[in-house]
Predict the structure.
Amino acid sequence: MNATAIAAQTAEQSAAAKDFLPLEGTDYVEFYVGNAKQAAHYYMSAFGFQALAYAGPETGVKDRASYAVRQHKLTFVLTTALRSDHPIADHVHRHGDGVKALSLRVADATQAWNETTRRGAKSYMEPKRMQDEQGELVMSGIHTYGDTVHLFIERKNYAGVFMPGYRAWSNPEFAPSDCGLLYVDHCVGNVGWNQMNPWVKFYEEVMGFKNILSFDDEDISTEYSALMSKVMSSGNGFVKFPINEPAEGKRKSQVEEFLDFYNGEGCQHVAMATNDIVKTVRSLMSRGVEFLKVPTTYYDDLLDRVGSIDEDLEPLKELGILVDRDNEGYLLQLFSKPVEDRPTLFFEIIQRKGAKSFGKGNFKALFEAIEREQEARGNI
């Protein structure tokens, strides 16, 4: 091993030693919804998830029903209250269907809770040991922006289908094929005016994240609206949380529209990775998922802007897939329309071909497409 390699290895080991919250990735995303059974059916039929596990009165959970669905390493949990006088029902009444928990896999959920609360996090759930015949799972949690929480999930001593309180759930008569969605690439949070930097500070000080990219209102703006964003990354780079806030513009920005209809701060979108975005998007469209469209003129000088790419241009143009390049490669991405009647939660489909960035070169075209949708809703 040469001196450069040794130095790089030493730097990596040093960074790992300083990472007091080593995250193993996103464990699952939990949505609080008005009707979990129907929501689970939607994510299975439209996005290609498979039935995984169920919790409810039949499993000893008396106040809620939860359906876990999975596609490769991507797990969603859809949860609904069984009575109206329940905090989950209050959450849905206030926000509509939306993300409650961004759950993170850790080796030690007790240590994760201790480290983060010691640094100022507000506790959501003290370390809780859950057991059944399949072993023990440990869970803890902290509050973040709005009503969103981070759960820390420790699975090393658990061999069950999902977690205690759940039973295996399947429907052999309804098992849609998957759409090639692999894992959570990143999750974006929308926060209020002048709240981006305080939440950046929270992720830096409480969770040991680093600010790896920043975009100001010059980077993310159109003729009418603007926003600012900072991308936060865990010490090992396995988890990334961009944080958006509104910026002054002539009209209401997409972040302001979200905050108005969500009634507060929350998770704006979940980006899901694929290795074949053309195939994935075709499959999603055939199942009824709707995507934002950019003008076809976007593709007129695409190769001049991003250089040579492996993909044929025509399918990208047909499907509206965006392309951007950074110093390490390029990426392909496409954004769904909101998946609720409220213009809040949506999804991003992303394929990385080396790029580590988030599509800065696409911001103007993307946000103009969003503005056209806002205008159709009368919210701009």
Notes: The longest helix spans residues 3-18. The domain at 181-377 is CATH 3.10.180.10 (2,3-Dihydroxybiphenyl 1,2-Dioxygenase; domain 1). The chain has ten helices and 17 strands.
